[in-house]
Every structure is written in structure tokens, then in C-alpha cells.
Amino acid sequence: MVADLVGRNVDLIVAGGPLPALAAKNATSTIPIVFTSGEDPVSAGLVASFPRPGGNLTGFGILTRELAPKRFELLSELVPRVGVFALLLNPNYPTTAAVARDAQEAAHSKGVQLHILKASTESEIEAAFTTLLQLHAGALIVDADPFFVSRREQLVALTAHYAVPAIYETPESAAAGGLISYGPSITTVYRQEGIYAGKILNGAKPADLPVQQPTTFELVVNLKTAKALGLTVPPSILARADEVIE
């Protein structure tokens, strides 16, 4: 797909995710690229540094790995009696190993068990929930991964069917019936991407535009789902919520 874009000699490429961004970088050193990456863009080899990206790429890092322990903390606060948690990861995503390690450390500090489930296809998601039941996991953290975002409806339906409290990255998941979500404002990130694209199309160079990280984070709680699960959302979470769905 990137080769096709380069062959058309487009003026700009916008790449969502570290893998598309790397593919774009490997395909062209001249066409400007604006990326969004859940992986550290420096360690991923996309840019030289945040303030001085260099080359033909710039964009936004969205702290996928850094927020995984925070999601675990929020979920454990919501279901304090649960002693066994599960974390759903896509094994093909670059941050998977690091996210699993950080989440395990957070679970260890809380004195609870955390099982790692992996899925990269629709059928593997179904199988992961079967495993979750076998492990007697009482709550689920869904990793911030583009594939899981694309399977939002399936995941929300499965957590409802199996009555499993789950936390997601995007507010759209909570709006679709998920229990709780916490993550950067993706709408804000994409708006900033558009601003960067406009600047570049007006003559700015990617090398002169620093890579940014999100400053706005959204906590959304779905009280309807909490009631269906028989959960009482603590006032401490409600007080911090940016949106409460009733």
C-alpha cells in the first residue's frame, strides 16, 4: 500500500500506528510522513529525537505502554475483590512484550494474579474468552491496539455475554457498552495530526516539527454496564471521570 502511495508521488503520507509508519519510512526518504505511534518513536527507529525528529517524519506518540499499568490500577479499584485478572494482547503489535511486563509488575505490587491472553484474529478473540473463563479471571484489561479498536463491537459483546468487567483505551468502547475506558484523547491527537499535515503542505519541514505526546486523557465510565454487572462504581472514580454514561 505504501509503495502504491509513493508511486503516485503523493505530497504527504499520514500513517496510523508504528508498523505503517515504519513501512512508510522504509519506502521513501523524501515524501513527508506524519505518524501516530503507540510505541516510543525513537526506540522504534522512526525519529532521532522528540524535539528534533530529523529526516522526513514527525508525529505523535500516544503512550500505549505507559498507560497499561494505569488501566490496571483503575480496573482493580473498580473491582477490589477480584484476585485474578487477564490482559488481552495482540502478539503482532510491537509493544506487546513491554506492556505485558509493565502490567505484571503492577499486578505483583497489588498482590493479584495477571494472566496474559493473546489474539490477533476474530476467532482468537473468541478463544481468549474461553481461556479467561478457564483461568477464573474476574476482570479483563484490553490492550490499546489498533486491531482491538477495530473489533470493538465483538469485544464489548463478549464481555457482556460472559459478564466480565473490562477496561479499554478509547471512549468509543465505553459508549458502545464497555464498562470503563482510559486513554489519550484520540480525537485531539488526530486533530493535531491534521494541523501538522496542513503546516507541511504549506511548506514546513517535518524535521522542524517536534514529535508530540498527548496532554489530554479521558476517563469514561458506563453506569448502565456497571449496573448490569452488579457493580457499584466508587465515588473516587466517578469524581475523576470526564464522562459518565447513564
Strand content: 15-25%
Examine the secondary-structure arrangement and name the CATH architecture of the largest domain.
Answer: 3-Layer(aba) Sandwich
Task: Domain count, please report it.
Answer: 2
> Helical percent range?
40-55%
Concise account of the structure shown:
The protein has helices at 2-7, 18-27, 64-78, 96-110, 122-134, 146-150, 152-161, 171-175, 186-201, 223-228, 235-240, and strands at 13-16, 33-37, 57-61, 84-89, 113-118, 139-142, 166-168, 180-184, 217-222, 243-245.
Verbal overview:
This protein is an alpha/beta fold and 246 residues long. It folds into two domains: 2-61 and 185-215, Response regulator (Rossmann fold), CATH 3.40.50.2300; 64-183 and 218-245, Rossmann fold (3-Layer(aba) Sandwich), CATH 3.40.50.2300. It has helices at 2-7, 18-27, 64-78, 96-110, 122-134, 146-150, 152-161, 171-175, 186-201, 223-228, 235-240; strands at 13-16, 33-37, 57-61, 84-89, 113-118, 139-142, 166-168, 180-184, 217-222, 243-245. It has a seven-stranded mixed β-sheet, with helices on both faces. It has a three-stranded parallel β-sheet with strand order 1-2-3, sandwiched between helices. Strand 4 (84-89), helix 4 and strand 5 form a beta-alpha-beta unit. Helix 5 runs parallel beside helix 7. It starts with a helix and ends with a strand. The model has no long low-confidence stretch (mean pLDDT 94).
Give me the secondary-structure topology.
Blueprint: H1 2-7, E1 13-16, H2 18-27, E2 33-37, E3 57-61, H3 64-78, E4 84-89, H4 96-110, E5 113-118, H5 122-134, E6 139-142, H6 146-150, H7 152-161, E7 166-168, H8 171-175, E8 180-184, H9 186-201, E9 217-222, H10 223-228, H11 235-240, E10 243-245
Parallel strand pairs: 1-2, 2-3, 4-5, 4-6, 6-7, 7-8, 9-10
Antiparallel strand pairs: 8-9
